[in-house]
């Protein structure tokens, strides 16, 4: 099966640009960045913009939420207080400063800054093979998270974006009638997540977290498959044949 590598760094929340996150990515890949925001900004416009220089006031808007422009897609998830930015078919010319931002009409926008470098020969720090998984109610899903050699000693977690509930390697949590188990394999530099007893409420965005870095994974939960029933058997009266010296007698089997 062909592997689709996703190179992602996760935001804790959008704020007023007090820090910058640096991302090093490979040409031809794609990146998905979930940007969290406060509930008070649900009705505000969300955007992704770019600038050759590190100045938000001079950035060019590439796409607004729920739109696709060229190789950029921005999707808002107001029920989870986040929007995602996906950049596809990355090119070396994409190197530069970026911001995921929320427009504020009555004041300065709130935003998070990135500096993205697209260069050949770079290995992903944290990645997943599948960024979207689907399971059925009551069923099981498995996710494999991969990390680079320099992160073997870091804590490995599976975290739900909505409430930041995290499950840590080596522990089992059976809350809410679902179980989450994580096992780490240092030799292959990967850890596996298994969620069993799935519920509809388990659906949403999660993250494979290694230290402070995180890769988002979207979990969908569909209705359980209808139970199959065997056709009921119809009992028919049985007969047996007896023989006597006077002839053949065929009485009911049960009388």
TrEMBL record:
- Its protein name is Ig-like domain-containing protein
Q: Which InterPro entries match?
A: CD300_family_receptors, Ig-like_dom, Ig-like_dom_sf, Ig-like_fold, Ig_sub, Ig_V-set
* Record domain Ig-like: where: 124-220
Please list the GO terms describing molecular function: transmembrane signaling receptor activity
Listed under GO cellular component are: plasma membrane
List, alphabetically, the SMART domains matched: IG (SM00409)
Keywords assigned by UniProt, alphabetized: Membrane, Transmembrane
Q: Where in the cell is it found?
A: Membrane
| Transmembrane regions listed in the UniProt entry | none
